[in-house]
Design goal:
It is a single chain. This protein is an alpha/beta fold and 257 residues long. The chain has 12 helices and 8 strands. It has a 5-stranded parallel β-sheet with strand order 6-2-1-7-8, covered by helices on one side. The chain has a 3-stranded antiparallel β-sheet with strand order 3-5-4. Helix 4 (64-73) packs across helix 5 (75-85).
Length: 257
């Protein structure tokens, strides 16, 4: 009997040793994340270390090494990590002058145009473009808008299209009234407007990106700020591959240079 208790105690000690936390060196994990997404968190090592340690603990991991080995084999766990680290705040009619320039170009076009928003985040940008085009009396069959993001959670929010007032603070009152239904503190985009945008979870650096086809106009705003110089060049070359022709234009954010 005493031998059984002794054996159990020895097993408990082994388990405790296995569960000793080691969340010190996060650089290998950050390097892998960058290789998969292009996003560089190395300059935020101290801040991101704490966030990642909590993420690992909540999923039963006790060190970065075992977690890294698991995300290499588990695409769903990797997607969870991407969703956790890439949540961005945005709002309607952000950098409106670029959207207004696009509206004029679409007006002058004699053919249907394809527009890509990357990253689309929770949908404010592609929906802003749709609203601006409709406000300019451009027929719905004259444009196609696709929004992509590597974050599946924000794509889900984009599809639901329910926003708080802070996301709409730049919209004129008549736009809010025409295109949204207010329910309490939330604004629900009308179903008819939601149909103008198609959302997909796509990584810029995956082969799936090129399968989207070519585009007349590409909105890629506030994404480059997460890349180092080498990755910025790679990202821009990827975007060039999906331009329809030499007249196609890529719109970058003011902070992306």
């Amino acid at each position: 009997m005493f031998r059984i208790f002794k054996k159990r105690k020895e097993v408990d000690v082994v388990v405790q040793k296995q569960r000793v936390e080691n969340f010190i060196d996060v650089m290998k994990l950050l390097a892998y994340f960058k290789s998969e997404t292009g996003i560089d968190f190395s300059k935020k090592e101290k801040i991101i270390n704490t966030k990642l340690a909590n993420f690992c603990r909540n999923r039963g991991f006790y060190n970065f090494e075992s977690f890294l080995n698991n995300i290499k084999a588990d695409k769903f766990l990797m997607q969870e990590l991407i969703d956790y680290l890439t949540v961005n705040e945005t709002y309607f009619y952000r950098e409106l002058h670029q959207i207004e320039a696009l509206v004029q170009k679409v007006k002058n076009s004699h053919t249907k145009v394809r527009i890509l928003c990357i990253p689309s985040s929770s949908g404010e940008e592609p929906y802003s473009i749709a609203i601006a085009l409709l406000e300019a009396n451009i027929m719905k069959d004259k444009f196609e808008i696709i929004g992509i993001d590597i974050n599946s959670e924000v794509i889900g929010r984009a599809k639901s299209a329910i926003y708080k007032s802070r996301s709409l603070y730049k919209l004129p009152p008549h736009v809010k009234e025409i295109y949204f239904n207010q329910k309490g503190e939330f604004y629900h985009l009308l179903e008819g407007i939601k149909k103008h945008v198609t959302f997909r979870v796509v990584n810029l650096f995956d082969d799936q990106f090129l399968s989207l086809g070519s585009f007349d106009y590409i909105f890629c705003r506030n994404m480059m700020i997460y890349f180092d110089e080498q990755t910025k060049l790679k990202a821009k070359s990827r975007l060039e591959l999906i331009k329809k022709d030499s007249q196609s234009k890529i719109y970058f954010g003011h902070a992306d240079n």
